[in-house]
Amino acid sequence: MLVKRGGAGGRGCFGGLFVRWLRRFIRPSRRIVGGFAVLVPAIGLLLALDAALPPPLDRIRQVSTLVLDRQGRILRAFATAPGVWRLPARPEDVDPIYLRMLQAYEDQRFDSHPGVDPLAAARALGQWLRQGRVVSGASTLTMQAARLLEPHKRDLTGKLGEMLRALQLERRHVKDEILGFYLTLAPFGGNLEGVRAGALAWFGKEPTRLTVAEAALLVVLPQAPSRLRPDRFPDRARAARDKVLTRMGQLGVLTGQQVEEARQEPLPIRWHPLPFLAPHLTDRLRTARLGTALHLTFIDRGLQQILETLARQQQSTLEPESSLAILVVAHRDRRVLAYVGASDFRDPRRAGQVDMIRAVRSPGSTLKPLVYGLGFDDLLIHPETLIEDVPARFGDYSPTNFRNTYAGQLTVREALQQSLNIPAVAVLEQVGPARLAARLREVGLPLHWSMAHPRPGLPLALGGVGMTLEELVTLYAGFANGGGVAPLRFGPADSEASSQRLLSGAACWYLGDILRHGPIPQNAVGPASVARPRAIAHKTGTSYGFRDAWALGFDPDYTVGVWVGRPDGSPSPGHYGRNTAAPLLFRVFDLLPEPVSRPTVPPPGVLQVGRDQLPERLRYFRTRPAVETVNIPPLTLTFPVAGSTVELPERGGALAELPLAAKGGVRPLRWLVNGRPLTTDPWRRDAFWSPDGVGLVRITVLDQVGQTASAEAWIDRGE
Fold first, then answer.
1. Whole-model pTM above 0.90?
2. Active site residue 690
3. Which of 133, 419, 478, 606: CA 20 to 30 A from 412?
4. Given 64, 322, 365, 543, which residue is catalytic?
5. Which tops the pLDDT comparison, 105 or 708?
6. DSSP assignment of 646-699, as one string?
């Protein structure tokens, strides 16, 4: 009985114990399960909120537009729409000593915490509970970045939101990106935001290399930028800086000697102006590509700064309303190295904000080299050809020389070097002003015509047309490059375009040789030029009424253009290219590096002979009066057709003759094949040429009044 009760009682006791144990297990399990049931949706809600409400990054995107030189240095920064200087910065843009001091002072566990530092938060809370006031903050650099991205009130609600945003930032961005947010947005007094703006304004330099004292001031300024401005509150700023230095010594970031030496360093007492170089070019690039925050250029910052200083110095020799412009190009790849659009951008008397590099002005005599170059290519003249400089009338046009004197008979070389007007007009009359204008238009340099003279005419040779300094420098860079013309390039965004042929290499060699040995004005040679003379091919020009003074020049590597005058177009009597612009041109060349390239050797087609060894037709240029061209049919080349392929049969081992045909124009006609004249009947409108092989051929026909027509075609063997 006892055993039975005991057994039954034992089993009942065990069963009760098991049931009670099971109940105790089930209750907490239910709580855990219930907790999970609450936690999982909460986590899902947080993730959904994180996706729906990402950290706002609008402020980090609204940075100052920067224009940089070829080495990445700032030429000019533009304030944001609200007028803030907010320069983007990354950790690699800043001196490492500043970054070490910043993290040691503001957030020692920045590299390891998830955005909120639990240890710092616990310490700050304990100090507040013990002392009843805030003793130290718990704000991490990530939390400060969150506050800078999304400014808010400094209350409990704002602090909690700041912590949540910090967690979001850490989840979405790496530490260097978060640090970059702080370095870009931190306030440094006034309308300065970002460590780059702070360093440039307070120390006049980029933050890539800072002294210990400079780094300490930049560390502490964002804590109270208005109260700690060194230009207004130097005592406060010094105390705050020294506090940082002391703390860095305690933490072992700095040695005691470094701390003491840094304490002796004076504070900045004024703002340094932010970089403001090449203002006309930077305005131009910013306007051309609105919305682009970073513009890269080929500008040499040091050269640009020197030339802007030179321009301001030079303007003291001019009238109060006068200005000047300088453009420097490395012509091998058309890179613009310096761009001075006016002598003083901030001087309203001189219309300083008008970009005179792009202003349309009369080019004076600066187009004469092109006139002669086309004459060389047409085999009308050679540098040693004799030409007359005597009073002449071309129809109803009677040009005169600059000083109303005449040289008589002289060579083409001398006529161009002396910039005589009559010979240039005589050559243009046979080259054809319409043809010259068309050739410039074909290579991307269309001339600008006035309403009074909308058609090309002979005054074109003397400046009776409009061009810009940029266009003239492009033209002369083409001379320097053997006749190929291409647009100038201001930065890597401007792709290198293929050049368009304007003149032959031989014609450009003649021009360079003539202009390189021309007379140099006495006041154009400075000490540097005497010490290291360099061969500069140069040409000056003066527009009608002394309104524009020009000087263009090139050596084996560089092309330089200078304009001097009044932006409003009023005369400047006594100032002309030779005595005003040329001296400045040579001073600019003195500031350029020695050319690396050597002067070109004569290309094929150049005749380096005296006049007596020239072909008979090149020994003397005969001036003829202009023929009235009203109602004269235009000259056109009817065969071969431009771009076509002509198949010629072989006869006796040689290709058959190629027929040439033209219509219109005024006879007699002259034919050129690949620049060489044909012996034909000039009164016929057709001719024949015997090819010496297959390949590309250029056919040109010229008429009595200077009209010309050309075509390129391919010659091939037919069956």
1. no
2. no
3. 478
4. 365
5. 105
6. EEE-EETTEEPPEEEEEESS-SS-EEEETTEE----TTSSEEEE--SSSEEEEE
